[in-house]
């Protein structure tokens, strides 16, 4: 378990270095990536891959909005770091490998799963944005 | 007369800010929002901007003609996005004059990449190795993914410099990663080809494009969202094809 905490933190933080993220937000990027991934790993065994991805990307979205507001930095810097571990790279790879091996039925099956997970990431981000807008609007109307 | 130059200056300033942001890979809505915000801060309340991944159009209601900028080259530079964002905040709160803002923006535009190439390669190597463990790989494969991932990124950066064909760099870098992974397994340094390959191509994954495509579509920028999504899919496909070619050798 500790390996997951450690590696996801460093993976997210070093990934955003490739995109020239500001040095002072590297730690937060790592944190967002780590929390999203750890939540995903914890719950994927119980509720399945796609719902776990949805929950994790929702968490990532909320954290990003909070960090962005708190540090006055564009949201996207944090969300890249949070989303990257959730991208179904391994699954896409497996689908492609089946295609190469001419096992098309399995390939399509895994491919469809991959698309579901990609959709779950998007849906999680959308949900966090919805929450953000609802919370932001409330004080004005009251 | 003076009024006119100042409107002209404002438009130039907006376009400069938009250009720097779009070239660094900001979301469409952020670029449009920043430009309109700067324009409003300098008194042009009725301005419109239309941004796609390749072009910025900006018009103010008045006698000034609409302006257009073509964006040829797009890189990813989160630091520049953050800087221009900070500058536009300062402009909006009235802390910066047009001239100071322009100097700052030009500085931001020409700022070098914050991390040197060796640091980037190291970061890519670390990313690869960490992803290997996250995807269920074993620690003995750690060095193999570390080296393959670093080499993959180095190859992709180098190829981007010498060949101007899109997706080719990603394809060849992924192919190199696949071949290196095979080599490690033959040499006895690596054990699971699948995991090493998946971990090591992670630095090549167009993470920002994917995030941007989703965010653009959410904000209703359909043209930008779909074109960025297509770009991301093609890049992912190029990476997949590179690994696939390596797999063909494997059999």
From TrEMBL, chain A:
Transmembrane region(s): 25-43, 50-68, 74-95, 107-127
Record flagged with keyword rRNA-binding: no
Compartments reported by the entry: Cell membrane
InterPro entries, alphabetized: ThrE_2, ThrE_Dicarb/AminoAcid_Exp
Membrane topology label: Multi-pass membrane protein
Keywords for the protein's UniProt record, in alphabetical order: Cell inner membrane, Cell membrane, Membrane, Transmembrane, Transmembrane helix
Keyword Repeat attached: no
Sequence ranges assigned to domain Threonine/Serine exporter ThrE in this UniProt record: 5-130
Family: Belongs to the ThrE exporter (TC 2.A.79) family.
Protein's UniProt name: Membrane protein
Organism: Saccharibacillus endophyticus
TrEMBL record, chain B:
Keywords: Cell membrane, Membrane, Transmembrane, Transmembrane helix
Membrane-topology descriptor: Multi-pass membrane protein
Positions of the Threonine/serine exporter-like N-terminal domain: 13-249
Main location (coarse class): membrane
KW Glycosyltransferase (keyword) present: no
Taxonomy, superkingdom: Bacteria
Entry's transmembrane regions: 117-136, 142-160, 167-189, 195-217, 229-250
Family membership noted in the UniProt record: Belongs to the ThrE exporter (TC 2.A.79) family.
Protein name: Membrane protein
């Amino acid at each position: 378990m500790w390996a997951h905490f450690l590696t996801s933190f460093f993976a997210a933080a070093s990934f955003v270095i490739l995109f020239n993220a500001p040095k002072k937000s590297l730690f937060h990027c790592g944190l967002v990536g780590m929390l999203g991934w750890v939540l995903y790993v914890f719950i994927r065994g119980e509720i399945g891959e796609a719902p776990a991805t949805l929950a994790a990307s929702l968490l990532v979205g909320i954290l990003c909005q909070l960090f962005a507001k708190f540090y006055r930095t564009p949201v996207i810097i944090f969300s890249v770091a949070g989303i990257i571990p959730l991208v179904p790279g391994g699954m896409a790879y497996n689908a492609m490998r089946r295609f190469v091996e001419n096992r098309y039925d399995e390939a399509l099956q895994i491919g469809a799963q991959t698309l579901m997970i990609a959709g779950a990431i998007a849906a999680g981000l959308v949900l966090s944005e919805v929450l953000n807008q609802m919370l932001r609007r409330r004080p004005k109307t009251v | 007369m003076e009024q006119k130059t100042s409107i002209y200056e404002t438009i130039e300033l907006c376009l400069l800010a938009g250009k720097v942001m779009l070239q660094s890979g900001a979301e469409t809505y952020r670029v449009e929002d920043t430009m309109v915000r700067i324009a409003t801060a300098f008194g042009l309340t009725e301005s419109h901007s239309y941004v796609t991944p390749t072009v910025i159009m900006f018009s103010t209601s008045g006698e000034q003609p609409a302006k257009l900028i073509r964006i040829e080259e797009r890189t990813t530079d989160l630091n520049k996005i953050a800087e221009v964002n900070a500058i536009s905040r300062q402009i909006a709160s009235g802390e910066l004059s047009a001239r100071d803002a322009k100097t700052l923006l030009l500085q931001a535009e020409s700022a070098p990449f914050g991390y040197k190439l060796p640091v980037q390669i190291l970061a890519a190597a670390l990313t690869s190795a960490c992803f290997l463990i996250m995807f269920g790989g074993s620690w003995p494969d750690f060095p193999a993914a570390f080296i393959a991932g670093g080499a993959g990124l180095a190859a992709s950066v180098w190829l981007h410099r010498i060949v101007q064909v899109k997706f080719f760099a990603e394809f060849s870098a992924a192919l190199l990663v696949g071949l290196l992974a095979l080599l490690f397994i033959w040499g006895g340094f690596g054990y699971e080809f699948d995991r090493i390959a998946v971990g090591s191509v992670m630095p090549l994954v167009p993470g920002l494009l994917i995030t941007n495509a989703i965010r653009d579509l959410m904000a209703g920028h359909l043209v930008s969202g779909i074109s960025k999504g297509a770009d991301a899919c093609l890049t992912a496909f190029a990476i997949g094809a590179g690994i696939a070619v390596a797999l063909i050798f494997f059999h």
